[in-house]
Each structure stands twice: as C-alpha cells, then as structure tokens.
UniProtKB/TrEMBL annotation:
Descriptive protein name: Membrane dipeptidase
Any one GO molecular-function label of the UniProt entry: metallodipeptidase activity
The organism of origin for this protein: Edaphobacter aggregans
Entry keyword Signal: yes
Record flagged with keyword Signal: yes
Entries under InterPro entries matching the protein: Dipep_AS, Metal_Hydrolase, Pept_M19
Leader sequence residues: 1-33
Keywords, alphabetical: Signal
Stored Pfam families: Peptidase_M19
PANTHER family: DIPEPTIDASE, MICROSOMAL DIPEPTIDASE
GO biological process, one term: proteolysis
Domain of life: Bacteria
PROSITE patterns named in the record: RENAL_DIPEPTIDASE_1, RENAL_DIPEPTIDASE_2
C-alpha cells in the first residue's frame, strides 16, 4: 500500500544520505558478551544465515496483478524478488493483499482482494521448485529446511471483507493468515489512525459490536489480528477483545517519530503483555522525524500531482495502477534524500527496550513505500539489520528471535487456540 498519510508539518531542510559503512565494517569474530553472559556465535553474517528470517509485510502483489510481473523475474525497480530474498536470507514473506479504497468501490473490494490472492497463488504455481505456499508455522519451517521460499498472505484493510464474516472465513480458506483491521481508511466497523482527525468521516469510537465479532471470529478460525493502521481507541478495544496474541505487521515507535501510524510506548507494552509482536516498518516517514516533516511539507504539491494522475485515469474509466502513483511518490521522496540507516536501527532498539526481545520483528513494507532508509535498497540488504543490532550488543539468540522466531511463536499460539474442525 502507499504509505503517505500524515498531518502537515513545517518544511525542514533537505538532508543527504547517511553512510552506514562504519556499522557494516565492524568485526564480531571474537567471543562477545551477551545480556545472558553466554558465549555464542558472534559473526553477524553467520548468525543471519542461520536464522529463519520472516517479513510480515510487502506490497508486491500489486506487481503480480497490474504489471504481470513474476516474483522470480529481475527486480526491475522493485524492492523484493526471489533473488534479493535469497541474497538477504529472507525465508518467508507475508504478501500484503491491499485494496486501494480510493480506486475500488466498497462493493468491489472483494473482487480486487480475490485477484490479488490469485496473483500471489499463481506465483507458487509458476515456480513450485522455488516457492511454497505456507499456512502454518510448521510449513514455514519445513519449506526452509527444503530450501524453498515460504509464501504467505495477509489482508491489509478490513474493508476487504465487505462486512461479511463469510468472506473473512473464505479468505482464510484461500490461505490468508492475518488481517490488518483497517488501512488508512476507517471502515464500517473500525476506526483508522489515517483519518481519525477528519471530521467528515463517520467514526465509531474504536470497534463497533460487529468489529468485536470480527476479532472474535479471527481468534476462532486462527487468523492473526493485525493492529497496524488502527486508531488508538481501536487498538485498546482489540486488546480488550482478543483472547490470543496480536501482531503489528508494520509499525514503528511514536516516541521516536511522531506519526499517528506509529505505536506509543504504552501500546507497545500492551502488545508485550498480550504476548504479541511489533514488526518494525521501514518507511522513512515512520522512522525519522526530520524526514517525516520534510515529507509532510511536500503534501500539497504531492497531492496535486496525484489528483492530476487520478483525473487522467478516471477519464479512461480505469483505476490508477499502483506503479503510476508510486512513481510520483518516489520522485518526491528523491527530493528529500534518504533517511539515515541508524534511524531504523533506533526503532528496533527502542521497541526491544520497551517490550523485550521476545516482542519485536521485521515488517519492511517493501514495494509499498517510495523509498527505504539509506543502506536498504532491497531484501538483499536485510543482513545489515543483524550486523547493526549485534553492534549494539544484541546476541545471536536475540537476533534469531527478532528475525523470525518471535513471529513463529505468535503464529503458533494463534493457531493452537483456534477452534478445531
């Protein structure tokens, strides 16, 4: 999805890219003291290579459907493909099934959702020697052992169910294993952080009674509840309603970057108490305050360009393809420059300190953001996260939890609590 929603702020000076060479040149080949006092593997490259690395959010399915592009093709301007995943030891990816509510009418959400699901499943059909559809933690582990890339799906935005628990169940039957309750738009049963200050939008003070039924039904069938994008009140209603751990599939820390999409420290603590996991987002506007302010200062000009693009496609009777709108966002992001790599690492560090190492993971938002931070160009660069965090004193065991084991634990807990057929 396009991550662009944020309040206007005063323009700050543009800033140049920050080099990460120093971080990446550090050597860890000697024995390293860990928080537990144990000695263990300390070469970040080996630690990263030995882990099951899981990313809970990438918007690549737009490319499958709209561009007729295959996951095994060259990147061609994208941030994630099969080759970059292998280079970065990314072993499992939750592909985001996101329907742009501004381009597809409410009664057409399900059709677009099904097209994106089909586009993702087609990738597995076309490359069965490389890709495997996975719907359980055990299948992820088995795929990893067999050398195959694990393909998973998560719906981004509850508007995709068109107020139907039957549709929700059918998406689960097709392989969807989490749903983000809202995108940047408030739907008929849950408030979003993206429009919570918009007086023209009908809000519900969090979850409606039906919204709570959605959460309970997700608990019952074994679908993870994702609270990224929701309003603060919706978040607290979810925590009160759910009987199993939740995830934030791609959210960062509001204490460091004052974006409404980010989570407060109290929310992060609540996810930890719930047993869930917060997956750090890579969008510069969510991880670097200076970049966020520069991005928001561009909003009037950026919106003008997007409106002109929409008018062009509307005249043709067509929805705006994501690649076209993303091109505009990339052009505006290029005027700002790259956010510092350390800003991303600071968010991992902060959430670990607030929630504990058992409650943090990776939710890149690849192919759904105009640009990642400096040093991260594609999934091939994910080992830099391990190098940087081990440079701050985190152990091999810590990294294996963050890179994938924490998500496997939550995924397993949600499925174990599901009603047995």
């Amino acid at each position: 999805m396009r991550e662009t929603t944020a309040p206007n702020m005063t323009r700050s000076p543009m800033f140049a890219a920050t080099s990460t060479l120093f971080l990446l040149s550090a050597s860890f080949m000697h024995a390293q003291a860990t928080p537990t006092g144990k000695k263990q593997m300390t070469d970040p490259a080996k630690v990263h290579a030995s882990a099951i690395v899981i990313d809970t959010h990438a918007d690549t399915p737009q490319r499958f459907v709209d561009e007729h592009w295959n996951f095994t093709d060259p990147l061609n301007g994208g941030m994630l493909n099969y080759d970059s995943a292998r280079k970065g030891n990314l072993g499992a990816q939750f592909f985001s099934i996101w329907v742009d509510p501004g381009q597809y009418p409410a009664n057409a959400s399900a059709r677009r959702t099904l097209e994106l699901i089909d586009g993702t499943l087609e990738q597995v059909r076309k490359a069965p020697d490389k890709l495997q559809l996975c719907t359980t933690p055990d299948q992820i582990i088995a795929a990893h052992k067999s050398g195959k890339f694990a393909v998973l799906m998560g719906i981004e935005g509850g508007h995709s169910i068109e107020n139907s628990l039957g549709l929700l169940r059918n998406y689960y039957r097709l392989g969807v294993r989490y749903m983000t309750l809202t995108w940047s738009n408030t739907n008929d049963w849950a408030d979003s952080s993206g429009d919570i200050d918009d007086a023209t939008v009908k809000h519900h003070n969090g979850l409606t009674p039906f919204g709570k039924d959605v959460v309970r039904e997700m608990n019952r069938i074994g679908m993870m509840v994702d609270i990224s994008h929701v309003s603060d009140k919706t978040f607290w209603d979810v925590i009160e309603t759910t009987k199993v751990p939740v995830i934030a599939s791609h959210s960062s820390a509001r204490a460091l970057t004052n974006a409404q999409r980010n989570m407060t420290d109290d929310m992060i603590r609540a996810v930890a108490k719930n047993g869930g996991v917060v997956m750090v987002n890579f969008f510069p506007a969510f991880i670097d305050e200076q970049w966020r302010q520069a991005w928001n200062a561009q909003k009037p000009d950026r919106q003008k360009a997007q409106d002109a693009l929409e008018a062009e496609y509307k005249a043709k009777g067509l929805p705006v393809p994501y690649a076209a709108s993303d091109k505009i966002d990339r052009e505006f992001a290029a005027k700002i420059g790259r956010a510092p790599f350390n800003s991303l690492i600071d968010h991992f560090d902060h959430i670990i300190k607030i929630a504990g190492i058992d409650h943090v993971g990776i939710g890149t938002d690849f192919d759904g953001i105009p640009v990642p931070p400096d040093g991260i160009d594609s999934a091939a660069d994910l080992p830099k996260i391990t190098t940087a965090l081990m440079g701050r004193g985190y152990s091999a065991d810590d990294m294996k939890k963050l890179l994938g084991d924490n998500l496997l634990r939550v995924f397993g807990a949600v499925q174990a609590a599901a009603e047995k057929p």
